[in-house]
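Supplementary Data S3. Sequence and structure tokens for construct A.
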Amino acid sequence: MPLAEVAQRLERRLELDTLYADYAACLDTDALERWPEFFTEDCHYRVTSAENYEAGLPLGLIYATSKDMLKDRVSALREANIYEPQRYRHLISGIRIDGEDAGTLDVTANFLVVRTMQDGAMILFAAGRYVDRIVHSSDGWKFARKIAVLDSRQIDTLLAIPI
């Protein structure tokens, strides 16, 4: 493989690692007003169970089809919803490019989310994989589609914060 191609692949890998690290940091530091900026205007965001994903069922526990819907979700979290303060820690690994076509990448990655409550109690809140479509724009890589596929069908009723 020519050196220029190797350098291009490494650069893209670093850009994706940075995208996922910045995404996790945004959620983990409660900077939710920045969260929609990781997405394209006509994005698709969904949190669903593995069974529903594999069965091709379209709806999810959280479902949005535009950046404006993501902004509305953040507004609701800040202004309307009442829930106990908590902290999240996203661990994202195994980022893999599954397909590529003209500036668009199909990417999967594993995630674990640990939730810490105000009293210090910690639980493994969610585990699963992201099934993402990422596009390159003038501001860098953005999620055109992000589907959080949860390994467990037992879902905490307090799924307020995005995964």
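Construct B, processed identically:
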Amino acid sequence: MSGAGLIPAAAIDALIRDAMAAVGLPAADAAKVAELMLEADLTGADAHGVFRLPQYVRRIKGGAVNPKAAIKVEKTGPATAMVDGDNGMGHLVMSRAAETAVELAKEAGVAWVGAKRSNHAGAAGVYAAMPLPHDMVGIYAVVANANHMPVWGSSENLLGTNPIAFAVPAGEEAPVVLDIATTVVSYGTVKANKLQGRDMPAGWMIDKQGQPLTDSAKSQDGLLLPIGGHKGSGLALVLGLLAGTLNGAAFGRDVVDFNYDDETACDTGHFIVALDVSRFLPVPAFKAAIDRHLRDLKSSPRLPGVDTIRLPGEQRRSRRAERLKNGVPVYPEVVTQLDALADELKVPRLGARF
């Protein structure tokens, strides 16, 4: 992240905790939100960590998010459950959903937990990875909090970036963590370009006449392109139905654009799946096989100009260790926004915390 300054992880955590507490979250909830937002920053999901703090605060202050949510879990079967988020912070809702999925999977071997009446929860990979310490595979998906993509062939945005993430345990190698939007790029990345006054590469967005759109200042009027053409559009549709409609949560025209609305509840829908590896193979044997395959992939012949073969999750682990040690890169424009927010909330600025 060229041009970004390094901010100690502890300073970011403290700012988020203080900001969340200042707008009414109980101390334990504020700490949990800070932990999960910081995890996004540490693992490289820079558009989903502290970058989002001003927006979260704005929506809580506007009445769109309940700072004192009473999250409820209803077990609906041996391997299924529904979480009612009471319009609370999505980080709290999904951490509860992930905990529930792990507990159910310990008994049933697999669990599918849906969530409704939730909000934006940050980086998908953070939640998919939660079953990993329990030697489980994690799968997570969500209906994005704004529609920025049309169904294939349309010019109206009725689909979100609807990300999906998978996490697969490994042994000595880094766990495989794949976290992808169903669009070519996340809208958070588009927002980051807009904040910094940078143009977007061709291929991210088009206008409603189907022409390339590269001016990030006009991104709110554009259409994000799906990964893989019609295949990405279809994947966004299916994930939206499973994370939204199946849970009785928002999808399609019912989705609230949280970028411009600070008063209306989003009713965000998510799901998380936990799968106990030991129901299929002994865990040591599975991890050894995963390691072997990952090493085969890494050591396979490279195309000209390719220095190294990167696998999903590999840099996530090394990046987390490096950022914990040396700090999280944060652009000056984001620091300016965070300082203004700190002044507004009457809490110490980032620079006063280290």
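DSSP finds ten helices and 14 strands in the chain. The mean pLDDT is 96.
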